[in-house]
Design a protein that fits this description.
Length: 378
C-alpha cells in the first residue's frame, strides 16, 4: 500500500529543488523492439541481429523491477510520494495512417516522455515509432493529477507523423561505411537522422535550470523541436546545445546540474557551443565526471557506461547514485552531499539509470534565474 503523504501538486522548475513526488518506471513487458528506421540495434552475442526482436528475458525484467521497487520504497520512507506507470502489451503491432510497427518498446524511462516545467507536464513528441504510444502508460496518472490538482496544466506536443520524410534517407547506410575517425568528424556537424519536416523531441534531451533550458540536438531531437519548445515556453531561455558525441540521444549523462552554482560535465563529450564559458561566467563551479567503474556495457544495454552520472538529486544536499559507482560517490561526498547509494544497474538495459527511470511531479521551489549573465548567440 502506497501511503499518500503528499497531496497532488504538479510543479518542478529544475533538477535539484526538494523532491516531494516522483514517477518511477517499470520494466514489465519491455521489448527489444521490432526494426524501425530510427534505430539500429545489433546484439549478436544474444542472437539479436538482422532485425530479430522479442521480449527481454523474464529474469532480467524481474531483477530490474526488484531494484526499482526497492528504490521506490526507499523514496517513500523519506516521505516522497511515488507513482508508477501502467504497462500495456508492448508486444502488439501498432499503426497510424502513415506506418505500421511490429512492436512497441516499454515504459521504464518516464524521463524520456514527460517534461515537467512549472505546473505543466508536457508529453514529448517522441521520435521512434515503437515509442509513439508510450504516453498511454502514463495516462492513468495524468488523469488523476488533472482531477486532483486544479492548477495542473496537462499538455501534449503535436504528435509527429513519423513518415519516411521524418528520417534522412540512407542515414545508416552512410554511417555504417564511415571509419571511426570519419564518424567523429561527422559528429561535429550534428546532422543526425531526423529531418526538419516536423518538430521532434524526447523530454530527456532537456535539462532544466530555472529560467534556462538546455536542449540537445540529437538522434531524437531536431532543431524544429527545439524551436517548438522555445515558442511553447516564452518566459524561458532555450539554449541549443550540441556535443562531440557519436549518435547522441538524451542529455542526462552529458550535463548534470547538482544545485545552484554546481554542475557536472561529461569530459568525454565536449560541447560544441560555448557552454563551459556560459556556466563559468555565471559563477558556476564545474566538476568533471569521473569514469564509471564498469569497463563495458552490460548485456543488451543501449545506453553508454556514462550511466554512472545518471543520478537523481533529492534536494540540494542529497543525491541518489548507483551504489557501485564509488568514484562519483566520493566526488559528491567531497562536494558536501549526503550520497544515497542505490543499486540500479539491473535497470540499465531497460533504458537508463536513476534520472532516466524517474520523472518529477513535484519539487518545492520557484521559478528563478540562475544565469543573469547571458551570452549573445547562445
Ligand atoms: N545517450 C545516453 C547514454 O547512453 C542515454 C542515457 C539514457 N537517458 C535516458 N533518459 N533514457 O549515455
Amino acid at each position: 500500500m502506497i501511503k499518500e503523504t503528499q497531496k497532488t501538486i504538479v510543479s518542478s522548475w529544475n533538477e535539484w529543488d526538494p523532491l516531494k513526488h516522483v514517477i518511477v518506471g517499470r520494466a514489465d513487458g519491455t521489448m527489444i523492439q521490432a526494426p524501425e528506421i530510427a534505430v539500429q540495434r545489433e546484439w549478436p552475442e544474444q542472437g539479436y541481429t538482422g532485425g530479430k526482436y522479442g521480449p527481454y528475458p523474464k529474469e532480467m525484467i524481474d531483477k530490474a523491477n526488484e531494484q526499482m521497487d526497492n528504490f521506490a520504497s526507499m523514496l517513500e520512507k523519506r516521505g516522497i510520494r511515488v507513482d508508477r506507470p501502467t504497462p500495456i502489451d508492448f508486444s502488439q503491432k501498432v499503426q497510424t495512417p502513415d506506418w505500421e510497427q511490429d512492436s512497441m518498446f516499454g515504459c521504464m524511462p518516464p524521463r524520456d516522455l514527460l517534461l515537467t516545467i512549472g505546473n505543466e507536464m508536457l508529453e514529448a513528441t517522441m521520435s521512434y515509432r515503437s515509442r509513439w504510444f508510450e504516453y498511454l502508460c502514463f495516462r492513468p496518472l495524468l488523469e488523476k493529477y488533472f482531477e486532483e490538482d486544479p492548477n495542473f496544466k496537462w499538455e501534449a506536443a503535436p504528435k509527429p507523423r513519423l513518415s519516411e520524410k521524418t528520417y534522412k534517407k540512407g542515414f545508416w547506410e552512410k554511417w555504417n561505411t564511415l571509419s571511426e575517425e570519419e564518424k567523429w568528424e561527422e559528429s561535429t556537424k550534428s546532422e543526425w537522422i531526423p529531418t526538419e519536416v516536423e518538430p521532434l523531441f524526447d523530454a530527456a534531451d532537456v535539462v532544466r535550470c530555472g529560467k534556462d533550458l538546455f536542449v540537445q540536438k540529437s538522434m531524437v531531437t531536431n532543431q524544429s523541436g527545439i524551436d517548438w519548445l522555445q515558442r511553447h515556453y516564452p518566459d524561458h531561455r532555450v539554449h541549443t546545445v550540441r556535443y562531440k558525441e557519436l549518435l547522441p540521444w538524451h542529455m542526462d549523462t552529458t550535463i548534470v546540474p547538482l544545485r545552484p552554482g554546481l554542475v557536472m560535465f561529461n569530459p568525454g563529450r565536449p560541447a560544441l557551443e560555448p557552454q563551459r564559458e556560459f556556466f563559468e561566467k555565471n559563477n558556476w563551479k564545474i566538476l568533471e565526471a569521473p569514469k564509471s567503474v564498469l569497463t563495458k556495457k552490460r548485456p543488451m544495454t543501449f545506453c553508454s557506461i556514462w550511466l554512472n552520472i545518471n543520478l537523481l538529486v533529492l534536494d540540494p544536499k542529497t543525491v541518489c547514485v548507483e551504489a557501485s559507482e564509488t568514484p562519483v560517490i566520493e566526488l559528491l561526498d567531497k562536494n558536501g552531499f549526503e550520497v544515497i547509494p542505490v543499486p540500479f544497474y539491473e535497470v540499465s538495459p531497460f533504458g537508463g539509470g536513476l534520472h532516466c527511470g524517474t520523472a518529477d511531479v513535484y519539487r518545492e521551489g520557484t521559478f528563478e534565474d540562475y544565469f543573469p549573465k547571458q551570452m549573445s548567440g547562445f
